[in-house]
Amino acid sequence: MATSTRTGRTSSFSRNSSSFSPASSSPLHQQQNPGIKLGPNASAFVSSGIPDLDRILGGGFLLGTLVMIMEDSDAPHHLLLLRNFMSQGIVHRQPLLFASPSKEPRAFLGTLPSPLSSSSSSSSKDEKQEEKGLRIAWQYKKYLEQPAIDPHSKDVKQEFSNDFDLRKPLERHLLGAKNIECVTMQDSSSLAVIRDHCSNFLTKLPRNDGSNVGRIAIQSLCAPQCGYTEMDWDMVSFIRSLRAMVRSSNAVAVITFPTSLLPPSFSKRWQHLADTLLSVGSIPDEDKDLAKLLTGYQDMVGLLHVHKVAQINSQVPVILEATTFSLKLHRRRSLVIERLNQAPVDGSSGTSYGTAGSCSKSSSVDF
Questions:
Q1: Residue 169 domain-assigned (yes or no)
Q2: How confident is the model at residue 180 (pLDDT cuts 50, 70, 90)?
C-alpha cells in the first residue's frame, strides 16, 4: 500500500510528460512545413538560403525578425545573400514581396539561382567536409578515407536549406507564381506607399496562423534612385514600423542598404533597429600580407561580418565563436561561408591556431 502511494505521488519539480509535447506548443509544427524549423524558447527559423549561414546563426533567420545587410561600395556581395534568400522562399512556395530601386524589379527575378541537383549537392558537401578536415591536418591528405554517406540525413537538411547553383537561373514556372509580388521604389514618392505594400502583404500572414511563412526582400533602401535622400527620419520611421509589423506576423524581412549614402548618425540608428545585422566586404586583389596570413585566400571573393544575432524569448546573449567569415564560390557554382583560418607556420598547423588570438589584434579580420 505504501509502495502504491509513493509511485502515485509526483514532485513539484517534475514535469508531466504526457501533457507536454513540442507539437502541441506550436501551430507551425502541426503543419509539417519543410520551410520552417523549430528552435529553442518557442522560436522558429526560416532558411537564409545558405546552409553555412544558417549554422552560423544557430538555425537560420528567426521568424518575426528584421535582418539588415550593410552593403559594400566596392563589390555587390550583398546580392549573393539577397538572391539566395529569395530563391529559398520561392523553392518552398512561400509568399515573397520584393521591393527594388530599379524600374523593372521583376527582371531581378531572372538572376535568382536554381537549387543544385541532388548528386551535385552530395558531392559538394563531401568535398567541404574533406576540406574542413584538411585544415586540421593538411599534411595527412593521402591517409584520408571517404566517409560513409547517409542519404537520409542529407535529404532532411536539404528540405529546409538548399545549395544553389549561381550559374543556373531559377526555372520560369517558379517565377510565375501568384504569391510573388514585385514593387519598384522609383514610383513611390513617399515611403507610405511601400509601407502599405508591406502591410497588405503581412496581413495575409497572421501570427496565429501557421499555414505559411512570408518573406520580404528590400534592395538598397536608401539608393539615389529611390529619391529618399532627404527623408532620413521617414526612413527610420519606416524601418521601425516594418519591424513591428513583421514581429506580429509569420514573416521575415531582409533589407540591404549602402552605409556610405547615409549620415553616420542615421547609419547607427538603422543598425540599432536590426534584429540581425550583417555586413559584407570586398577583399583586395593583391594583398600579400593577407594572402600569407589566411589559408585559401585565392578562393575568397569577400568577407562576411556578423554584428548582431536576433534572439526571441530569451535574455541570454548569443556569443559566436567568430564574427568574421570568408565568402567563397565552390567550383564557381555555390556560395560557401567559412570561418577564417590562419595559414600554417613552418609546416605546423598547431602553431597557426595557437597564434590566432595574437594576430587578430593587429589585423582587421577576426579568427
A1: yes
A2: very high
- What gap in Å lies between CA 337 and CA 10, rounded to an integer? 49
Q: For residue 346, give its domain range.
A: 66-131+160-361
d(CA 149, CA 104): 44
Helix/strand/coil for 112: coil
Can you give the CATH number for the domain in which 165 is found?
3.40.50.300
User: Which residues, listed in sequence order, are joined to residue 277 by a DSSP beta bridge?
Assistant: 68, 308
Determine, yes or no, domain membership for 37: no
What grid cell was written down for 50?
A: 545558405
Exposed/middle/buried for residue 58 (C-beta within 10 Å: 0-12, 13-18, 19+): middle
Res. 148: pLDDT tops 90: no
**Mean pLDDT for the chain?**
79
**Nearest C-alpha neighbor of 280 from the set 73, 45, 65, 12:** 73
Residue 99 has pLDDT above 60, yes or no: yes
Whether 152 is in a domain gets the answer no
- The answer, yes or no, to whether residue 327 has pLDDT greater than 90, is yes
- The grid coordinates of residue 88 equal 529559398
- Distance separating alpha carbons of residues 322 and 360, to the nearest angstrom: 11
